[in-house]
Design goal:
Structural class: alpha/beta
Radius of gyration: 25 Å
Oligomer: single chain
Distance between the termini: 21 Å
Strand content: 15-25%
Largest sheet: 7 strands, mixed
Strand order of the largest sheet: 9-8-11-10-12-13-14
Amino acid sequence: MTEQIIEQLDSIFKPRSVAIIGASNNPAKWGGMVLQQAISSKFRGDIYPINPKEKEVFGLKAYPDVLDIPSNIDLAVFTVPAAHMPKIMGNCIKKGVKGGVIITADFAETGERGKALEDETVRIAKSGGLRFIGPNGNGLWTSAVGLNVSPFPQPGHGPMAFISQSGTFRFVAAQVAGIRGFGISKSISIGNQADLQIADFLEYLAQDDDTRVICLYVEGLKDGRRFFNVARRVSRIKPIIIFKGGSSTIGAKATLSHTASIAGSDEIFDAMCQQAGLIRVDEIGHLFIMAEALFSQPLPKGKRVAIIGNGGQGVTMVDKLVSWGVEIPELNESDKQRLKGIMPPHAPIPNNPIDFAAGTMETMDEVRIVEMIASIDYIDGIITNVPFAMSFQPSLAEQKKSVISAIDIFSNLPEKYGKPIITQKWMEQSNVSDILKSKKIPMFDSTEDCSRAMHALVKYAEIKKRIGI
């Protein structure tokens, strides 16, 4: 089944040619927005606008029908009214198209008439072996060929895949990825899941070399048993983080008109996530915090975490982590004394959390403390502040060289010791932050985000142990 899905979905995620059916010179229309984004993306394949009323669309030769295109077409993107879909889908079958993205709405989410139209479109597609995303979505981004067929600007290339039943959340994901400095491998708006379902994409992404973490926004499942079986298998290979809409009674009703989804019992869904090894979150932002930690840091061998910070910062992290089952072990006496020799004179004898008592140190001294803790065998992960460095001037070459050297050592500690490091930005230090960002060290603004990121690493490490690698 997996080999079959890979072959089928390669026509969608790795097309060599794309037809935009319903392309328009009007940038306010879907056919205009999608074509413009496809042209401006890094896609180097052929793009064919389909519009019987135009000779050219945005500088590209337009064709009246997909059957008039002289070359083979791998992927068709549909932005035409729903009533025209059966006929147009039939022509795509005649043309030998194997992949589709139906952006058009007005199908099953609108009632019985739309459901009948959706069923007929699916029947025709299946008759020719065409697999499609949607309908009622807002497009696709695939880093494999640099193709963006959606109304949103192209995100950067990166290790996170995002499958969403919300177009708005796809836009949020692209924004967060840009702000945080990581990219997206695949961004898929699945809509009504009339043909391809979440389980199909999970199977594909499990073997996708561009994807390291899979994030889901789900409102309802078409085939819950298959989703469970596939998700349980894929979560052994890659982490899956899920945010579900429709957990309340009113929210569950709203999903029916949004994407024709039946939300089901939230208690049953939660139990299914636990058994399948999915990491469930209750806010969309938590998806991306956890994803960044999971694709950038090694998994901890256990759940024993050390915290380095100042005062209440460490206390609040302890509270959060302990509430999630993470352990904060006390340091033994010899390790306390070793650390005390480096810390500021007024700082208390270090324990866990380790309190600098509002003191500042040379950048290299902070790095030495973090490395000393990373070397302790009963510590599995570390949360610490971004190492402090006074803003250096370009003329101070030696100071700059010293800071860069210290941050470089710090950035290599996760790989050297096989332990994750999560950092909190406690003041603006662009000179240091830029280096850490380039080295893929996660930096977060709050103690809660840092705690949540570490919890994700601990939780997925436990999931892999429980369900098997």
